[in-house]
Amino acid sequence: MKSIKFLTTLFLLSPFLPAMADNLPKGSITKCIEKPCYKVLKTTFDYTPIRELADSDSKRFTHIKSGINLYSKNEKPGFYELDLGLNKPYWIEKRYVKYKTAAPDKKLSKVSKIKFYENKNNYFVKIKTKTNSPYKVYQNKNGLQFEYYDTDVSKIFKKNVNYKKVTDEFNYSFEKSKNNSDILTVKYNNNAPVYAYDVKKKDNLLVFQIRKPLKIDKKRPLKNIKIALDPGHGGKEAGCVSGGFYEKDVNLQITKEINNILKQKGAKTMLTRENDVDTGLYERVDSANKFKADFLISIHQNSLPNPKNYDKRHGAGVYYYNESAKNLAYTVQKNIVKSTGFRNDGVFNASFAMTRSTSPVSILVECGYLIHPYERKKLTDPTFQKIMANSIVNGLEEYLIKTAQ
Peptide bond preceding 25: is omega within 30 degrees of 0, i.e. cis? Predict the structure, then answer.
């Protein structure tokens, strides 16, 4: 009976077997008929989102770098369903991955060594493994938690041991996942604010990097702080257009004022664009990373799908995505409203390209609504632009003083 069932399955799959055979390891065709094969995928984009649903507007579970291996047995139009060994499936858009091969089982990341060290500015956790698997970083009020999925940690843990303390700040542990692989967890516990952090892939290493708390001079809190300033839009991307004014121009004008004030206060700065030129979103983030910025502030002017609603929705607002940027967002917003008299449009948690960066700490400021007649008049006035710029800098200074070590 079992052999008849096998032959029936073989007959139904026969049109697909030649293609499968090209991609499968030798001798695994039978295994893939008896047990559905994984599609082995590799990410091709450094800011790849893994989502909770097969929907491009769905909540993001995590972001991973290019070159990460993923496994899928099911798919929907435009999406692969991912098996991370967790309590539910997750999804990735097909445009962010390339299909490598098929396999009856996962090739786990065999972790042969884990090393902790530090330098003047950062803590580092180096995970030695030849295969790069997916991961997630959780942030909470006590620090950070790094989870590494689809792993085999048998080489770094003795029998009946699943937890190791490294220092007062660091420990690591593992647990078995639902697909019988291991989940390696590294915890960083520190009551000090978390600034920047990142995950970097280097050859046979995955490096979890955490920025140490900044040393702040309370008399000159901005001295030597590295700040990337991003004037939104530019070139062909005009942004909001209202009353003959282009958002891209207003953004640049206000950003240059912020830059002048920051330099006077001893900060080290860079602009993602200094003229009216096309600049890609991730090109902006990359340039801030190359500058090794502590903070990234993106400047915009707001609009509405229906401009007639400006009487109900107007004023200044600030957006953040990561928990590390939340207090900065609220402090900057408070100072803008106080200094400009604009309506408080709110502080929002939003997944934008310019707010998702975890290194540097990133916020996006909507200075006001360019479609609002009163706010447009103010936002395009050079004197008011200086007031707006000062309020943003004051917010950053206040935040640094509060978090000074």
Answer: no
Closest CA to 101 of 19, 16, 11: 19
pLDDT in tens, 157-208: 988 899 999 999 999 999 999 888 999 999 999 877 788 899 988 888 999 9
List of residues 6+ apart from 202 with CB closer than 8 A: none
Please tell me the distance from the alpha carbon of residue 40 to that of residue 92, in angstroms, as a whole number: 13
79 within 8 A of 91, measured Cβ to Cβ: yes
Regarding pTM above 0.70, the answer is: yes
Tell me the residue ranges of DSSP E strands in 321-395: 344-349, 361-369
Q: Per DSSP, what are the bridge partners of residue 79?
A: 76, 93
Residue 80: burial class (beta carbons within 10 Å; 0-12, 13-18, 19+): buried
- Is there a contact between 281 and 232 (Cβ–Cβ < 8 Å)? no
Q: Are residues 290 and 346 in contact, defined by beta-carbon separation less than 8 angstroms?
A: no
- DSSP for 381-395? -HHHHHHHHHHHHHH
Q: Sort strands 344-349 and 316-320 into parallel, antiparallel or unpaired.
A: parallel
Q: How far is CA 290 from CA 65, 258, 264, 296, 359, in A?
A: 16, 21, 23, 12, 10
In this structure, what are the phi and psi dihedrals at residue 95, rounded to the nearest 5 degrees? -70, -15
